[in-house]
Amino acid sequence: MSKLHQKVIDFETLTDGEWAEESWNVVYITLGTSKAIAGSHEHFVKIDREYVLRAAKAARSPNVTSQKIVYLSSSGASATSWIPYLQSKGLTETALATMGYPHVIFFRPGPFKNPPREGTRRADESVGWLRNVIYSVVPSVEVPKLAKSIYVAGALGAWELHSADEDISKIFLDSKECLVVGNTGSGSLGLKYFG
Prior knowledge:
The chain is of the alpha/beta class.
């Protein structure tokens, strides 16, 4: 019987392989932030990339031959992007691909539709009208549907997942095959299994 383990983590003291004895089949990482919330570019990188990589290294169990890592990235993620947010996501993907996980799955959704947040963000207030225009051009993803899709990806793994949706593609990062679930798949994959 599988169980969900919830832990309080001090990312500053987290070490490689710290949780390896847990032998988790699936490692889900959805941690991220924005520069505005982090307060500076340096803090943004620490939270958005360094903490993610520390958690992935701590959870890697070499004795679990089919261990999966599922990472919530972003549409447009690229290690060579000139946009710091997208560059951070791309650099994180590349680093995750080299950690030895047998299954590496990245979700690259577009904008979130009505995300549950405490308070409002300046961007939401100042360009809220623009969000509606963007949603009419770029489909948005509802967070509950995204969460279900991320769960399904972890349950299926890369080999079964590839044939599950038309919005899933293979990419190679440092010669490691990874699966990318795009914007449409980010919202629809979970619906196929949860209705």
